[in-house]
Amino acid sequence: MKPQLASKTISEWARDVLLKATKPNASEQTVLAEVLALRTILLNVHFALSRGQTLTAEDMRQLIERADQNKLSKARERLAEAATGGMP
Fold first, then answer.
1. Which of the ends of the chain has fewer CB neighbours closer than 10 A, N or C?
2. Sign of CA dihedral 15, 19, 21, 26
């Protein structure tokens, strides 16, 4: 990145660059959200099957709906934790 010193001091430019680098982009959030939703579904299916339960199409629909409801907020939480060194 090339500093544009005409309008900013070097420290202002460096601060802006560093802050920008810590913000996840939309594609990172989307991919992580989908992975977390898939993880939620798989863990719930595995748990149900390990207990001898049979999952119906309606059960799966509910699992998917629940995983999709909060996948983006979970992804943002995880990314924020990673940005702060694991601290929420």
1. C
2. negative
Q: Strand, coil or helix: what is 59?
A: helix
- In angstroms, rounded to a whole number, what is the distance separating the alpha carbons of residues 74 and 20? 21
CA distances from 80 to 22, 37, 45, 61 (A): 9, 18, 28, 29
Each residue's pLDDT tens digit, 59-68: 999 999 999 9
**pTM score above 0.85:** no
Q: Which residue has the tokens 């430019």?
A: 13
Which residues, at least 6 apart from 13, have a Cβ–Cβ distance to it below 8 Å? 3, 4, 5
Q: How confident is the model at residue 16 (pLDDT cuts 50, 70, 90)?
A: confident
